[in-house]
Design a protein that fits this description.
Elements lengths: L2 E5 L2 E4 L4 E8 L8 E6 L6 E6 L6 E3 L7 E6 L4 E6 L8 E7 L14 E2 L3 E6 L1
Parallel strand pairs: 2-11
Antiparallel strand pairs: 1-3, 3-8, 4-5, 4-9, 5-6, 7-8, 9-10, 9-11
Length: 124
């Protein structure tokens, strides 16, 4: 079992930066791939980024490549999402998610554990 709590959301102007944090509890954290997803008003939840257990492998959705960076600190049970050059279309509730094992996936259904979400609002 993994419990996740996100923080770091807020309001920022276009071009600004935010760093989201996800605190995980549970003995299996260091054996799970981790991911970030987001859901904008009126839209379906979408994949943002995922990171392997070691942190050596990461994947991003095309729209955030070069702007967002996912990282993790297994010693602290933390996952981060550094978001730079933010755009109004990045506005959404961002969710941290833990995979069921070490496999990387872009599908939300492969992540059984979810945080409560943190709001990110980017104004133009």
């Amino acid at each position: 079992q993994v419990q996740l709590v996100e923080s770091g959301g807020g309001s920022v102007q276009a071009g600004g930066s935010l760093r989201l944090s996800c605190a995980a509890s549970g003995r299996t954290f260091s054996r799970n791939a981790m991911g970030w997803f987001r859901q904008a008003p009126g839209k379906e939840r979408e994949f943002v980024a995922t990171i392997s257990v070691s942190g050596d492998n990461t994947y991003y959705t095309e729209s955030v490549k070069g702007r967002f960076t996912i990282s993790r600190d297994n010693a602290k049970n933390m996952v981060y999402l550094q978001m730079n050059s933010l755009k109004p279309e990045d506005t959404a509730v961002y969710y941290c998610a833990a995979g069921r094992n070490w496999l990387l996936s872009r599908r939300g259904s492969d992540y059984p554990y979810w945080g409560q979400g943190t709001q990110v609002t980017v104004s133009s």
